User: Which sequence fits this backbone?
């Protein structure tokens, strides 16, 4: 099959492979983590915005004004985002950003996260 029906209309996306369908287990709003670049539900990500003094501010209630960047609340994603300078790019700012408040929020989140049970 070439991706068209008898009338010549396209039946699947041109980039889709035959026999595959796009399925997603995530429901509701989906955002992309600026650290790992993986998509996830909005509720699983931490939103950060630029504060008044050029610092990153965790937006725990997701209601602060301005452009936001989304991040998995893990140290790995935070380190990737800092290393790639993803916060400045996502938030469209060219000045260096103070990430202290976000690092503290992630550390707090990781302390409160239940252990996975596979550690000795």
Assistant:
């Amino acid at each position: 099959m070439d991706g068209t029906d008898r009338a010549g209309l396209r039946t699947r996306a041109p980039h889709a492979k035959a026999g595959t369908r796009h399925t997603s287990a995530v429901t509701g709003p989906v955002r992309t983590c600026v650290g790992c670049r993986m998509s996830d539900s909005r509720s699983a990500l931490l939103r950060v915005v630029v504060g008044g003094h050029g610092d990153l501010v965790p937006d725990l209630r997701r209601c602060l004004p301005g452009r936001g960047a989304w991040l998995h609340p893990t140290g790995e994603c935070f380190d990737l985002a800092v290393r790639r300078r993803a916060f400045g790019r996502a938030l469209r700012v060219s000045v260096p950003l103070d990430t202290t408040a976000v690092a503290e929020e992630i550390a707090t989140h990781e302390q409160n996260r239940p252990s996975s049970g596979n550690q000795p």
The mean pLDDT is 83. The beta strands are 30-32, 39-41, 46-50, 56-59, 68-71. The CA atoms of residues 35 and 80 lie 5 Å apart.
